[in-house]
Task: structure prediction
Amino acid sequence: MRTYLYDGTFESFLTALSLALERDEECALAREAGAEAGLFSEFMNAGTDPARAAAMRDLFERRGSGESWHHARYAFLSEAAGAEDAVLAYARLIKEKGRAADDMLADGRVKKVHGLSASVGGEAHMFKGFVRFKELADKTLYAKIEPDHNILPLLTGHFKARLGELNWVIHDARRGRAALYLNGGLVYAPLTQAKALEFDGKEGQVQALWRHFFKTAAIKERTNPELQRQNVPLKYRKNLTEFGD
Amino acid sequence: MVCYTFYMDLQQKLEILADSAKYDASCASSGSNRGGRGTGAAHQSGVCHSWTADGRCVSLLKILMTNECVYDCAYCVNRRSNDAPKAILTPDEIAGLTFEFYKRNYIEGLFLSSGIVVSPDRTMELMLEAVRKLRENFHFNGYVHMKVIPGADQRLIDQAGLWADRVSVNIELPSDKSLRLLAPGKTKDTVLTPMNRLAQQIAAHKDERRSIKSSPAYAPAGQSTQLIIGATPETDREIIKLSEALYGKMALKRVYYSAFVPVMKDSRLPALREPPLLREHRLYQADWLLRFYGFTADELLDAEHPQLDLSFDPKTVWALNNLDKFPLEVNKASYEEILRVPGIGVTSARRILRARRAGPLKLDDLKKLGVVMKRAMYFVTAGGRYGGIKKETQEAIKVKLLEHKNPNNQLDLFGQGEPAKEGLEAAVTGQL
Result:
């Protein structure tokens, strides 16, 4: 079976997808770094071809329904095992059925991609609430996140609208990448380890006030840690100021 | 910025004033779309930032300006005769604290309530001053929910909606009789008058904005209120009828239900061992049925059955009492009919309508669409096939439904009262 390798970027993934769609026999898609050579597999580097990537976007946007492109993109950002092949199967279905594909909600191929997309959208929404900034000495706001999915690109628009002219950095420590919004411009950059951060003098006090508020706001007679756990999964708590000491 | 030079340090004040504000159930930050220059933007669907140990969402800095109060309402922790420590935050402190929290993304904005200090007018003036400072000095475009103080001058009440995204007056006790008994100084009219005024203002500004886009928004996230459950003898029927009227006549966005927590001992109050949380939950479910599922209060409760069933959710109870309308064929029934099936919520009803365009649905497909089949199976057919028991008597279905009930079910369901999100997105998470 032929496996098309992409370099981790969405554009390269779309290139690989386009190559795979052209072949009638079964193909697979895999990220370069993660692919393991099987005995009978044949690997091809997809590279990045902007024309092919644009053609794929066209397929989802024009042939598919109004939401196909959204689901394909979000499913890709899930970085879940099997997401690439799920999008490939979904793309094949859209090629065949057109806009009706997204109505086939009980079909495994559609359900899988819609499910991944919902999971990414859900985590992105949660992190609009879970990002916690700390003010650095130079007044830049810095937040560390470790989400399951690659949601950083889905957060930047929200915080740009929210924080106005303030400078901020959101650091996805799990993927070693950061979005930096400095002096009105947004850039993404690799960031593996932040230098020892120097915080604003008032930062500790504000954090303490917040923790006090958070503790006080709970009604003792209604204590329900199970419900709290459902809403704030333990895995997210280490970067939440109110759950630290 | 935050000023630390007052006689009581800010941390202590915050603790006292957050502690007194926490019994207000509202924490929604949705329904507004503020933005533009400055800092902050309100998010249409609302954002929860954290959840406290009681599992309630934190989305706003919910505080009282002061817990001092000239009133002596029996149910209220801030009653005059409670000699717990009193504190007051200045407008600058409130604005500064909100901004510091907001900037760090702890919160969506401010929820400002207050005890009555000096007079309703003076209290309202100070609260308006805090919110004005936040908007003007900090150029804050985040969410603000402001309580309106009953008895305050109409001129002041009118201003509230110009600064805030949401305004509210808490009814607290669901009848005039209970108000007179437990809240001396308050009557139905003192509460309903400002509420009515706000409703008129909201409607008038909305109208004006239709023709003149540049005219100011007035409480764009609308008006809400809260009812305390279990402190007084009103039945669920009286409560749900009241809510129905508030949604209809006052165009309220939300009615919140707050299970009475007996923080104060008083001979006029019932001696509850714990807050009636399950009852509160059932009321939220019934409320959802009014707002998103097309039910009327009379369909859910009548004079002979004035209380919601604690063992079954109100939609299931309605369906069991109306078995002649079931089973429904999911390939043919209308959206409105499908919404009335237990185990089918807004999302799964929409999915059914969409998926059946692509081809006829089988029973097996329903589960994949998110239908809770263990409840829905008694009420639907798909392609003529029925998965329920043969002889669908009310009692037989009840027994089966109870068998399926997971022992933790009630706990899981409490999430549904989650008031942070509203509108359809909330209906989707709070499915029945």
Summary: Chain B touches chain A through 63 residues (CB under 8 Å). Residues 314-429 of chain B form one domain. Residues 72 and 79 of chain B are 4 Å apart (CA to CA).
